[in-house]
Write the structure tokens for this entry.
Amino acid sequence: MGLHEDFLKVFLRHQDGIRAFLSSVVRDRAAAEDVFQEVSLSLWESFESYDSARPFGAWARGVALKKVLQGREKARRIPLAFSPPTIQAVLDAYDRTEAAAPDTEGLRDCISKLPPRSQSLLALRYERSLKLGEIAKEVGSTLDAVHKLLSRIRENLQECLQRRLEAGPR
Amino acid sequence: MSDLDDRIQRRLHGLSSPEDLKTLGALLASSPEAADAYARATRLEFGLERHYRDEQAVSSIRNQVRRVRRRRWMTVAAAGLIAVVAGVFFARGRDTLAMTGDVALHAGDLVTGPATITFPGERTTLLLGASSAITLGAPDPGKRLHLRQGSLSASVDRQADPLVISTPDARATVRGTRFVLSTEQGATRLEVTHGKVTLARGAEKVDVAADEVADTRSPTLTKGSLYAERFAALWEDLHHPRRGYFSPDGIPYHSVETLIVDAPDQGHLSTSETFSYWLWLEAMHGRRSGDWAPFNAAWKKMEGTLIPSAADQPTNDLYDPKKPATYVPEADRLNEYPVSMDPSAAVGVDPLALPGDLYVMHWLVDVDNFYGYGKNALVNTFQRGPMESVWKTIPHPSKETFSAGGRNGFLDLFIREASYAKQWRYTGAPDADARVLQVVAWAERWVREQGQDPDKVLPLQKAARMGDSLRYALHDKYFRTQHDLIAWSEAWGGSLDRTNGWAWRSGSSHVHFGYQNPVAAWYLSKTNADWASSLRRQLEFYRWLQSAEGAIAGGATSSVNGRYEPIAAGTPTFHGLAYVDHPVFRDPPSNEWFGWQAWSMGRLAQYAALTKDPAALAVVEKWAAWARRVVRLTPDGRYSIPSTLRWSGRPDPWNAAAPGPNAGLHVEVIDETTDVGVAASLARALIAQGSAESRAVAKDLLDRMWTLYRDPSGVSNPERRADYRRFLDPVELPPGWHGALAGGGAITPGTTFLDLRPKYRTDPAFPAVEQSIRSGKAPEFRYHRFWAQVEVALAFAELAN
């Protein structure tokens, strides 16, 4: 298998983790996506120097961190959500929680087990990409109530994913 | 929600002010736990975005439909180099006869399964099975279909003109009903669950009504009982040597598949639960056929396999009922083991003082010598308190001769002593023995209905002996009280050496509602006062634990935390026992599993039906109303039942004269499953409750299960096992503890679940587990658990009766 295939294989597996990390430390989503494009290119360019004995996710996030911090000094600044020490702390946390990343099947399964009302709220938020205020209008509720409901739904999903990880049926 | 969680969620929702972000940033920088929580939340957020993006991309191409006359395939590349998906495009314009997904179907179209076909303006739905094919014909004047191969499950609204489905050798005429039509090797089979369908072959014609089946393989068109036939088919499957349910010497395995981690940690182990279900199966066979030989053979095998022989419990004559056992406190956490004995703690007197050997089953047997202690060796796993999930257990032999393990075998992993003696010890799971006695109660009745003498046909003396020995489960672990409920375990043991020999016995302090069995107690109460008290107590227990919604909450204990700690202020009590929401184990919490509801309430429903006891009837009726509400039967022919329950609040303190309403005790369903075993248990409970609504839900559930999950070996649903990542979980050992496995291999610090079960590495299914651990994608299996197959078979038999 060539270098290109090797890269694609690991990159495809880890790109969600890189994207998630970037959007967790960059203030707005469009900027995070721009950084991701740059990071992807950097990863591809420096892939030959990647030591395959090391976890790819951690290496790639290291590259992303460098890009993000460099971006602070550029003219077209990357709007960061946090200070560099906090970003470093988040990066460390991503390394620690790598094993608990939600898998596609697990997430699909956990979503399917939610009550229909929760599923439709998620669809409004993620399928139609509505802001919280717009969702509140759509379902005839308040912004605060929608915030609480979505938070609760995520909590349930986290629990479900955790349960899948830890416990099997009797 | 904590302040941190709320701040994280606000950030995800785009509601954070610059000031909020600063505070959140400071929290994340100063606390790794906070940073971990943030990482998890943002990963999930991204996962959700990704999920919904992917769903949109594939939502319109789920059904594979082929057109006979013209087809055009197109591939759509989505999201750059990431996903490539395939779809189908169709020309439109003529009359739309039906739809599959978003695709309109016309006369002449061929549809291959799996697919769902609907018809405009009505609820009629056809579910086409996998590897099945159907052609649509032009209306004449009703709908016309030709089933070329495979099977079709249909729910048909009332038709003005009959719907006609032809097969290679027959024709079914339908006016409005539910049925399954299948064709294989030129023959046709029709199973009707509602209404009536006329099946014709040439000039022959037969009207097939609800719960009937007709098959063109017989020389003349005849019909039979659908559900009796399904019971018989599963009975045949379970006994067929090629299906693999039994070992070569006739012991039923936990499951056909070897790689499976349930409470038994390998499929070719067997349990007292498995044997109890085997007896159920053979009792039902006896009822239907009048042949009780298989029941008696199963009993004999149970006795020979799981009830320790006199030679295997050799020092019972040295047992002193005045000092039944030395107190050992239970610990909360794994790393607190081994725990020290406390000979100074008070222990009660064993009032049963049964002479000689106990006649109950040990719970676990290694049929194929997976662990290396010999074929059919009795073994044990769980020993270390409420946090010991199966992934943390250390398998060990019931007869401890120090041939494996460490210097003291495996004893010093669990209990700390000055010196250790070679010994035997067994643990019963009393729900299984009670199930055996419940079966005997029914078998006796059925034999009598057949005009025979039960004493001559059934091993009733042995059953009475089992009921006698099972009374240890009605006692506190150290005989401080007699709680009269069926507790989590009973255990007994002794030295292997007669010089300075000894023996001990214990009950259990922890009581789960899921273990109660009022049918067994009722049966045994006719000859034994202890069981009469137990029956009354069990009935009160169910009532005490019934939530506002109707589901039954956890249980109670006579020894708080297994250490006789004082009952915390405000804890509701029941005859001196303290309420426990999740008795015995907490990883996962024991009363989350919906299966307990179906299992235990099925027994209470049977008892209520047998005796018409108004108190039991009231509890069962309320429970069944809840159970019917939480079953989901969707228009696409699928079903789901609760998997995990979440509990809040507590029961009112027990007052037998005026039981409280438990207005503050609530249950909620937090996720669902299609598990065939539990679904069948639920169906059986509803059939036993017996109302028309309950029976209708049970029948629908079972029909759907049969259509969706019948396979060549039995019935099985796909099951994703994310928990199999835990094959690599380290298993806690006491510091410095080293030992050896029976089959060779060292047990050293850092040992894993897999290291302790090295034969798993050569299991044919293991590469799938390894691959899933590498990829992070949970593996999917289809299991044939013996108990689940029997439960499905019994449900059909009970529907037929």
Remarks:
- Chain B is about 30% helix and 20% strand.
- The two ends of chain B are 52 Å apart (CA to CA).
